[in-house]
Amino acid sequence: MEQQKEANKYSIIIPTYNERLNIALIVYLVFKHLKDVDFEIIVVDDGSPDGTQEVVKQLQQVYGEDCVLLRARPKKLGLGTAYSHGMKHASRNFVVIMDADLSHHPKYLPSFIRKQIETGANIVTGTRYVQGGGVHGWNLMRKLTSRRANVLAQTLLWPGVSDLTESFRLYKRAVLEDVISTCVSKGYVFQMEMIVRASRKGYHIEEVPITFVDRVYGSSKFGGSEIVEYLKGLAYLLVTT
């Protein structure tokens, strides 16, 4: 198992938009929790006007341009295409996707890696809805909305995982390339479509409990339009998968 751990290398793709206040801390925490792991961080910034890219360039001076890669785009083009863009520059055999707003704490990364090595899983995904998982910082309405959304998706789609909308995941690179090539969603629904299509393809998926923490700095990108988009995406996946 130790030999396998040494052979595995990881590309961590972090899409950003106006995350100047968070990106330095998230990068620091990744390095703190992956001391004995071969990895690179790929920041895909969608033209943030708040100076996110300038902060990443400063981080490159600290950690090295080969360890922290800035792969910017001119404007917001959707989450799915951000991961595709990051994949073009990824050089490792495993890919982690995570948010930059500290809702996905890097302390869970060793658990993801350990679970993958122990089980040989194609995908390891974080979940808020098993023992040991949870949410911190959401009001009751937000918690109920998320839980109902997942229950509805479970009932209609039977994906075999407990948390479809959680976007903290570890993929075998080839699996991510295969799954992402079949997805059509661009925004909030993208993560759900990814895991549903992976399940339909028969990929081995494991879960790790995580506590999702609502962002401390910056503004949330979740709102009523995302709920409508989610319902439309659910209907689409029900018909096409």
Automatic annotation (TrEMBL):
Keywords: Endoplasmic reticulum, Glycosyltransferase, Transferase. Pathway: Protein modification; protein glycosylation. Its main location: endoplasmic reticulum. Its EC number is 2.4.1.83. Residues 11-179 form the Glycosyltransferase 2-like domain. GO terms for cellular component: endoplasmic reticulum membrane. CDD domains: DPM1_like. It catalyses: a di-trans,poly-cis-dolichyl phosphate + GDP-alpha-D-mannose = a di-trans,poly-cis-dolichyl beta-D-mannosyl phosphate + GDP. One of its GO terms (molecular function) is dolichyl-phosphate beta-D-mannosyltransferase activity. The keyword Endoplasmic reticulum applies. InterPro entries: DPM1-like, Glyco_trans_2-like, Nucleotide-diphossugar_trans. GO terms for biological process: dolichol-linked oligosaccharide biosynthetic process; GPI anchor biosynthetic process; protein O-linked glycosylation via mannose. Pfam families: Glycos_transf_2. It comes from the Eukaryota. The keyword Transferase applies. It is found in: Endoplasmic reticulum. Belongs to the glycosyltransferase 2 family. Transfers mannose from GDP-mannose to dolichol monophosphate to form dolichol phosphate mannose (Dol-P-Man) which is the mannosyl donor in pathways leading to N-glycosylation, glycosyl phosphatidylinositol membrane anchoring, and O-mannosylation of proteins. PANTHER family: DOLICHOL-PHOSPHATE MANNOSYLTRANSFERASE SUBUNIT 1. Component of the dolichol-phosphate mannose (DPM) synthase complex. This is Dolichol-phosphate mannosyltransferase subunit 1. It comes from Kingdonia uniflora.
